[in-house]
Specification:
Number of strands: 8
Distance between the termini: 38 Å
Bound molecules: 5,6-dihydroxy-NADP, zinc ion
Largest sheet: 6 strands, parallel
Radius of gyration: 20 Å
CATH class of the largest domain: Mainly Alpha
Order of helices and strands: EHEHHEHEHHEEEEHHHHHHHHH
Strand order of the largest sheet: 1-8-5-4-2-3
Shape: globular
Oligomer: single chain
CATH topology of the largest domain: Dehydroquinate synthase-like, alpha domain
């Protein structure tokens, strides 16, 4: 491990079937006004909303209602939330939902006291926060993004055809997060498997980079093995608590900054997926699965050694008598077969993308330079074209 780094993760996690009760420990730390942010209604249908409201009332809070946050939250919706938080003088934003609601809450958190154009400041110029934030707490209902324990906030601007993530600093991480695996039982299968693939992609984005011997890569391999094992069980029986709790815990560790420590990271699958998302508004995990195989086959020749290690350590490929390249490709074949069996979307057409979007998607793809190959516009076009 060659990099220098600082590690601190300030989010306090409460995990398990009784985790929600711990709101009684957290809520007294904040003022009276709590903005209760949630999505399109799943939390009302499955009873989580009611439980949260009861605890807020029992703790003497004024509730600022903020429902209707859409998947892939938009900058307009963030500004609406900012208005509501200002008007209600929110002391805490309690995000009850998946990554979209958590990301949205963080975007509102850093914008309530900001006078500037927040899209330009945070999502175009990637500037740091220089105003007071409104603290965020999170009750997670959808597993995948890791947003419950990181500073990420991914916001969509349909007018500019951009979906961009800002990774905020420690002060913007949720102050606490409640993780009850049973809260994810009502997720539609499509969302469950999209989330599973989002977790896998997060780990791989941080794994496929660097050439040094790095503890983070060994942790990543362990997380991947646990993920594949539990995903197979959950796919058979979505109500298997053990599998769903392992998925929830793996998701958190996949993207809470730990496995990026001391190494470079790639993130090009996400940049491609976000460009697709900006044009289609498709489910995040599925935008990743649709571009993954063309992307990894494209960069494999530049990182063959790591792809071969992945094949052996994660997919159990037997390397005897085979070239490193053959082993590497066999690993991707096994991964592809697993993805198909799980039911992931493997092409952009199935997500509603059309060829006339290609030029725009190429332009919307941000280029990162930490992976095995620094892509150029021609490379991006080739990968996206192969993904249709
Ligand atoms: O809106 P409701 O009605 O609540 O329904 C949601 C939504 O339609 C539903 N859902 C959530 N929990 C449920 C449930 N339905 C039934 N039962 C439950 N318990 O699931 C749908 C998807 O929810 P969403 O929050 O959009 O999914 P996810 O957690 O995958 O979040 C996706 C967003 O997070 C961003 C993505 O780009 C996308 O905008 N990401 C955030 C990251 C971060 N903060 O670090 C990293 C990720 O790579 C990702 O980019
Ligand atoms: Zn993701």
């Amino acid at each position: 491990m060659n990099g220098n780094f600082t590690y601190c993760n300030p989010t306090k996690l409460y995990f398990g079937v009784d985790a929600l009760e711990n709101l009684c420990l957290e809520l007294p730390k904040y003022g009276k006004n709590v903005m209760l942010s949630y999505g399109g209604g799943s939390v009302k249908r499955n009873g989580i909303y009611e439980k949260v409201v009861a605890l807020l009332k029992a703790n003497g809070k004024n509730i600022i209602e903020d429902g209707g946050v859409m998947p892939n939250p938009t900058i307009e919706r963030v500004m609406e939330g900012v208005g509501r938080a200002r008007m209600g003088k929110a002391d805490l934003i309690l995000a009850v939902g998946g990554g979209s609601v958590c990301d949205y809450a963080k975007a509102v958190s850093v914008s309530v006291n900001c006078e500037e154009d927040i899209w330009e400041k945070y999502f175009i110029r990637f500037e740091d926060v220089d105003c007071a934030i409104v603290p965020v707490g999170c009750v997670l209902t959808m597993v995948g993004t890791g947003s419950e324990m990181n500073g990420g906030s991914v916001i969509t601007n349909h007018r500019e055809k951009l979906k961009i993530g800002h990774v905020f600093g420690e002060n913007v991480f949720p102050k606490f997060a409640v993780l009850n695996p049973e809260f994810t039982f009502t997720l539609p299968r499509y969302q469950m498997i999209a989330g599973i693939y989002d977790i896998m992609s997060h780990i791989l984005e941080q794994y496929f980079s660097g050439t040094d011997d790095n503890t983070s890569d060994y942790i990543a391999e362990g997380l991947l093995r646990s993920l594949i094992h539990s995903a197979d069980i959950a796919a058979e029986d979505p109500l298997d608590y053990e599998a769903r709790s392992n998925l929830m815990w793996t998701a958190t560790w996949a993207l809470n900054t730990l496995i990026a420590k001391g190494k470079t990271t790639d993130w090009m699958v996400h940049m491609l997926g976000q460009a697709v998302g900006a044009f289609t508004d498709a489910t995040h995990g599925m935008t990743l699965s649709a571009v993954t195989m063309p992307y990894y086959r494209y960069i494999l020749p530049y990182g063959t050694k790591k792809f071969a290690r992945y094949a052996v350590n994660v997919w159990g490929v037997n390397e005897a008598g085979k070239s490193e390249t053959a082993v590497a490709y066999e690993g991707l074949e096994r991964m592809e077969a697993w993805m198909k069996k799980l039911g992931l979307v493997m092409d952009l057409t199935s997500l509603g993308a059309t060829k006339d979007m290609l030029d725009g998607m190429v332009k919307s793809t941000l280029i990162m330079d930490g992976g095995y190959k620094v892509m150029n516009e021609k490379d991006i076009r080739a990968v996206l074209s192969a993904s249709f």
